[in-house]
Design brief:
Helices cover 45% and strands 35% of the residues. The protein is of the alpha+beta class. Strands 1, 2, 3, 4, 5, 6, 7, 8 and 9 form a nine-stranded mixed beta sheet that branches. The model has no long low-confidence stretch (mean pLDDT 80).
């Protein structure tokens, strides 16, 4: 009986440690001249679970073909780069995503309130956004720099309103007078505890269950998202 009790205590301790651990995420985007790089990384269980999605190429192919993206996926389990994949973000796909988001909103009770409650548990651990800007004319560069500063300040205010800011933001707009240049680098890192994510999922399903067809709608959307992830990888 002593061994059984010890095993139960150990299992409960492991479950508690997992629930109190963080799911960490990092978003990175940079643009220098015509070169764009975008990456998203998610880590959980103290780094044992890791997923990294990289888009090294973003090209506008016209209004018909839309935006071409070349992506690469890295997982901790495989420890290697998967095959590259290419996809086009077309107008039809954007419309489809918009309809799915609208469908989720209609079939969930107060989805906006749920999003605010969930974001309130997110801790922003890093926020960096550096932009170098030059129009070629000094007065125009100064005016444009002020506009960009205003946009960044508004976005920073939005971030501080909905999430917990745990780090000092590094926000800057560096004017490049008498030079035509635009480059930007954005890095955002955050974390949320596992039990907050699980509780948010339970609350989401509870809200969906109060609307006719809500659970069925979310299951359908989850299956579509899973299918897209498999196709991308």
């Amino acid at each position: 009986m002593l061994w059984v009790a010890l095993i139960i205590v150990v299992v409960l301790m492991v479950i508690l440690i997992v629930l109190l651990s963080f799911i960490r995420g990092e978003f990175y985007f940079s643009r220098v001249k015509d070169n764009d790089t975008l990456s998203v990384e998610v880590r959980a269980l103290f780094g044992l679970v890791r997923y990294r999605y990289v888009i090294p190429i973003i090209q506008f192919k016209g209004f018909t073909k839309g935006i071409l993206i070349k992506s690469e996926v890295v997982s901790k389990a495989e420890a290697k780069l998967k095959d590259e994949s290419k996809d086009h973000i077309t107008k039809e796909k954007v419309i489809t995503y918009f309809k799915e988001a609208k469908d989720a909103l209609v079939h969930t009770l107060n989805l906006y309130d749920w999003m605010k409650q969930t974001l309130a548990k997110v801790q922003c651990t890093e926020l960096k956004w550096i932009t170098r800007l030059g129009i070629g004319d000094a007065p125009e560069t100064a005016i444009t720099t002020g506009i960009v500063w205003g946009i960044k300040s508004s976005l920073l205010g939005f971030t501080m309103r909905y999430v917990q800011l745990k780090a000092t933001p590094r926000i800057d707009v560096i004017p490049q007078f008498n030079e035509k240049i635009f480059s930007t680098e954005v890095r955002v890192a955050g974390r949320i505890r596992v039990w907050h994510v699980m509780f948010a999922g339970v609350r989401l399903m509870a809200r969906a269950s109060k609307v006719k067809g809500g659970i069925r709608t979310w299951i359908k959307l989850a299956l579509k998202a899973r299918s897209r992830l498999k196709t991308a990888s």
